Amino acid sequence: MKKIIPLLLISALVFAGVACDSDSSASAELDVSVSNIDFGETRTGETYSENITVSNLGDVMLEDVQVAVDGAGFSAEPVQFELGVGNSQEVVVNFMPEAEGDYSGTVTVSAVSENLVSSVNLAAFTVDAIAGTWESEGEDIAPGLAGPPFNNVRIEAIFNSDNTYNVESEDTEGAIILFSGTWQATAPNDEGIRGITLNQSEPAALVSSGIFRINGNRMEYEVIQEGLTGVEPPTVEGGFGSTLIGGNPTGEFWIQRYDRVD
Q: Residue 209 in contact with residue 182, Cβ under 8 Å?
C-alpha cells in the first residue's frame, strides 16, 4: 500500500503535465474568404460593394482584429472588431471612384496581439458616368424635340468611353437620322450638374453644348447647337431651363430625360 501512493502521485503529475502541454498547444488562425476583389468596369460617382468574410479558425479569442484599406476610392466597414473561436465577421468593401482610370488597392486584415496578417488585393477600371446607352421616348422627350420640325418619338444616345458618341433619332413617320461625333464633359458642381460639349461630325459638322446630370440610371440633359442667332445654350451656373432664346429662359422646352438601358 505504501508503494501505491507514490505511483498515484506520479500519475497525477503526468496527467497534469499532459494538460499543461495541451493548453500551450492552442493556436491562433485568421482566415479571409478571398484574396482578390475585381470590381470590373465601374462608373464615376457610383458606389460599388463586395463582401469578404473574416473567420477565427484557431483555438484562441481574437480581441483586436483590425481592417486597414489602402488605395484611392476604396473603403471598408467595420474597421475593428473581435472574433470568438469559430466565429466570423462580414466586412463590406466599398468603391466610389471620382475620376476615370485604373484603380488598385489593398485591404489588410490583422489580429495585432497574435501577429496575424492577411491581405486582399483590389482592382477596378472606371469610365465616365455618362458612358453607356441611353434611351428617351414618350414624355421624356423634350417638347422642343417632340414638336415640329423634329417630331421625335424616340432617341437613343450612346456615349462611348473613348469620348465618341452615336445618336439615333426617330420621328413620327419612322424616319431615322444618325448623328456621331466626340464629347467632353466637366466635373459636377455641388448639385451634380455637369457641362458637356459635343463636336458633331455627321451628318454635318457643328458644335453643341449644354448640361446634364445623372442620378443612377436616370439622366437629365439639355443641349443646344452653338452659333444660332439669338440662342444661348444652358450653363452649369444657370441650371436646367437656362437655355435663352431672345434673352428669355426656355424652362422645360429643351430638357431631355433618358433612362440607361445597358
A: no
